[in-house]
Design brief:
heterodimer; A: about 110 residues; mainly beta; six-stranded mixed sheet; five-stranded antiparallel sheet; B: about 110 residues
């Protein structure tokens, strides 16, 4: 069974800092990996999707990397802003499966 | 940008009652999903739906749960006899036919069973 872990569970940084969020998964037979943002009491907003054949994806200040063989992905946020404060979730789709396995998330607070 | 919409945003019900959670997926999407998130826990897969039938379901999705696409736009999740442990945020999601495409989530329905 696929297990997805995110470290740290919570992170607090001053505005302007660059930061890295980590995601690890136990089964490397994945089809793709998706990073989401969740604001309190809200739905999930897709940030980046990396296919298993890709090493990284970038969108604005966000960069996600994938090392499938070691079962790891990172989400890099450059020049953090208070508006980046949210919970960040990673989710993997196993090869041949139709559903996503989610991590427990990292709660990010960016202090003005 | 197109959105997945869910109604109601909050639902309070008594234990043993039936509830129906409603979703309108993005119009050209073909796969539909329900996920749930119990407070403080991971988002969990419940069921996926394609071509008017369930394509995959988790062990959570027992006989108390059912899904339906009653018309060309709505996708519903019914819980027949709610239990306290069904209290959670329920998310609907959809995606196009291509498995490489992103999954789009709605803003969720917070279900509270008293």
């Amino acid at each position: 069974k696929q297990e997805v872990t995110q470290i740290p569970a919570a992170l607090s940084v001053p505005e302007g800092e660059n930061l890295v969020l980590n995601c690890s998964f136990t089964d490397s037979a994945i089809y793709n990996l998706q990073w989401f943002r969740q604001d309190p009491g809200k739905g999930l907003t897709s940030l980046l999707l990396i296919q298993s054949s890709q090493r990284e994806q970038t969108s604005g200040r966000l960069n996600a990397s994938l090392d499938k063989s070691s079962g790891r992905s990172t989400l890099y946020i450059a020049a953090s802003q208070p508006g980046d404060s949210a919970t960040y979730l990673c989710a993997v789709r196993r090869t041949g499966a139709n559903n996503l396995f989610f991590g427990t998330g990292t709660r990010l607070t960016v202090i003005p | 940008e197109p959105e997945v919409t869910q109604t109601p945003s909050h639902q309070v019900t008594q234990m043993g009652q039936e509830v129906i959670l409603r979703c309108v997926p993005i119009s050209n999407h073909l796969y539909f999903y329900w996920y749930r998130q119990i407070l403080g826990q991971k988002v969990e897969f419940l069921v996926s739906f394609y071509n008017n039938e369930i394509s995959e379901k988790s062990e959570i999705f027992d006989d108390q749960f059912s899904v339906e696409r009653p018309d060309g736009s709505n996708f519903t999740l019914k819980i027949r006899s709610t239990k306290l442990e069904d209290s959670a945020m329920y998310f609907c999601a959809s995606r196009p036919a291509d498995l490489a495409e992103k999954l789009f989530f709605g803003s969720g329905t917070q279900l509270s069973v008293l």
